[in-house]
Amino acid sequence: MKTNLAENIRAFRKERGLTQEQLAEVFDVTVGAVHKWETGLSTPELPLILELADFFDITLDVLIGFDLKDNSMKETARRLRRLKDSHDPDGIQEAEKALKKFPHNFEIVRECAWIYASFGSFLKLNKKYLIRAKELYNQAIRLLPQNTDPNVNEAVLYGELAQIYDNMGDSKTALQMLKDHNAGGIFNTPIGMILARQKNQEDADTYLSYAMILAIGEISNLIIAKIYIYARENQFEEARALLEWGLQTNRALKKGSKPFFMDKISCLYLTCLSWVELKLKNKKKAVEYIQEAIRTAEEFDADPDYDCKNMRFCSLEQDCKMYENTGETAYTSIENCVKEIWDPEMDEFWKAQSK
Prior knowledge:
68% of the residues lie in helices and 0% in strands. It has helices spanning 5-15, 20-26, 31-39, 46-56, 60-64, 73-85, 91-101, 106-121, 127-142, 154-167, 171-180, 188-197, 201-232, 236-252, 261-279, 283-302, 330-341, 344-353. The relative contact order is 0.05.
């Protein structure tokens, strides 16, 4: 618990125009004693603190400088979260205090589990902290019916608990826990990582390949969504950089010269890049990008391939089709993209280039 007693004695003394010698004389102590009070080397006895408050004509809490914390459940949870994020060494002590006050509250127990897990895994593993984290996660799972956070469910908690088991060297338990709660492939990557460490290459590669397919789909959606935001804020340079990165990623995923499903996504990136250059008054570059989009679309539509096993870094024997809703063909996906942009200048530009 932190107070500002030393700083306040000094401040109130100066406010009244007193020297340390004069204050020492008032309370019949040595100058050295006053010096120690003001530097925090020693603290006056309680009766003397009361006399100091009376002398300065202030309340005791003002002299001490103690601010009463908001110890409500919500504020305690927020405070625990800040301590975890900052790796504050007071986190463990605060966690135990919170658990004594709110031992059966889901949010508090989960935040404390996080603190022990992060402190137990940060820089140097602390087995004692990780064991405590396991206990708290199991308690949080039992208290899950109290949860009101839509971003947290049973799978999330088991995923975090599995990480603790893995950090403690029990990869077998961690692996089974992740597999048991891998709805929608959310744990494909950590499962693949554990299997790869175990030198189970074939199974690891399958999980990691599916993880990559899901990640590529998420990245594609993310890029297009961010472009809409940048466009509304006139951040066209940022939009250009993001689209160029997306194009580079798609090209890196291509095994050879044969068209594949990411070329269809590249058509969208090229169309958006054309629009960006148009807004930046680089019409020549805008023409180059839209013509490249048209060529790419025509090549893909001549021999469409939606099989993910033909993607580089993806090791799947069985067919795995990529589905998206940008348009029936790559060419119509360009047309739909132009409509989504909703810019009269781009509409006219597209009509001129697509003849």
